[in-house]
Specification:
By secondary structure, the protein is α+β, with helices and mostly antiparallel strands. The protein has 2 domains: 10-103, Phosphorylase Kinase, domain 1; 107-364, Transferase(Phosphotransferase), domain 1, CATH 1.10.510. 38% of the residues lie in helices and 14% in strands. It has 15 helices and 11 strands. The chain has helices at 2-6, 17-20, 54-62, 72-77, 110-116, 119-141, 175-178, 192-195, 203-218, 229-235, 243-246, 252-261, 273-299, 342-349, 361-365, and strands spanning 14-15, 21-29, 33-40, 46-52, 87-93, 98-103, 107-109, 144-145, 154-157, 162-164, 171-172. The strands form 3 sheets. Strands 1-5-6-4-3-2 form a 6-stranded mixed beta sheet. A hairpin with a 5-residue loop joins β3 (33-40) and β4 (46-52). α9 (203-218) crosses α12. 38% of the residues are buried. Bound molecules: adenosine-5'-triphosphate (ATP) and magnesium ion. Adenosine-5'-triphosphate is lined by residues 27-28, 30-33, 35, 48, 50, 85, 102-105, 109, 152-153, 165-166, 168.
Amino acid sequence: MFEKLFGKKKLHDQTDISKRFNLIGRVGQGSMSKVWKATDLQSGRTVALKVLDKEKTAKFEERFRGLHKPSEGEVAMSLNHPNIVKTHEFGWTLEDEMFLVMEFVEGVGLSLLVDLQNEEMKRYRLRYMIQIGEALQHFHQQNWIHRDICPRNVMISDEKCAKMIDFGLVVPNTPDFRKPGNRTGTASYMAPELIKRQPTDQRLDIFSYAVTCFEMYTKRFPWDAAMTIDAVLQHINKPPVQISTLIPAIDKQVAAAIMKGLEANPDQRWQKVGDMVGEFRDAEQRLVRLAREAAAKAKGVAPAEPVKPAEKKTSPVLPASSAQPPASSAKTSASGPPKSNPSVSSARKGKRRPSDDDVDLNEMFGD
Ligand SMILES: Nc1ncnc2c1ncn2[C@@H]1O[C@H](COP(=O)(O)OP(=O)(O)OP(=O)(O)O)[C@@H](O)[C@H]1O
Ligand SMILES: [Mg+2]
């Protein structure tokens, strides 16, 4: 009654974003939001300001009416991981749209690198895959299901660090949200159980992560491109293309880990994303060790320093040496990648020896 007479009750504080932020420029138009690079006049920081589309967000939230689904702002604030964009705060505009204030990531979208398949992508993709997997592991440990893992929702910073940026479709990993029904996400990355409206759980993210890794190597989906749910429905019963038939030089352990993530039956898939990432980490360490040994052999000396055993939890940015390609394949990008390992460089300059066949350095970068 009161609300009818005096207008809608204000549920939360509102912010005049035109006063609070100096908008530098639009950086993104997502399907659910607008994103600006801005100066936060309160903190002085350069930030990404994401303003959610009110109608689209309300329509999405409506699907979960009565379930107390946390908002994108609340989800974003719960996350604290070096490979997930940091959200400083969230609030509501004078028009009652939700806005998020995030660290601004200078860099490019992972989808651009998937399309380009340039030297940077070949050189760093295993590192990026590990970082994205670790970010997803953090999501899962916070008991969320992401539901929209795909290259569009990952940025690669100029420091060569993968950052997840979008939490718009995240739901809690609780029985109410695992019930069949809501096919939200991006069609080509959707797990079969989601498409078939069966019960879902965090393993659907493992499937989408595996599709993303597949694309990072091949620039294509594991099936014929599927842009609509109807098209996806036709192909989910077919087995995926073997990644090693498309990229014969791919490391076998990496290939097997990706293919296991694509299993249609979630019971056959990796059960925990950490286990899949563990395979990538092991492969990376092995490839680095082999590359160092090959370099040392080519020089006719023992490896300069022993390779440290794998640490279960990698540092936010893997050591440059762990993603170091041979000098012959390393092109300097504008943003300045780490310097190449001199011992590897000299090995590649030297005459190819039969023993080099043990170590296909290109395998590491999956050409
Ligand atoms: N923290 C950030 N730093 C820099 N750019 C960003 C940041 N967050 C988002 N962007 C840019 O804005 C675009 C849209 O962001 P986001 O994916 O979060 O929006 P969305 O509306 O939820 O997208 P969609 O539903 O289409 O995936 C991104 O692709 C990226 O270019
Ligand atoms: Mg997005």
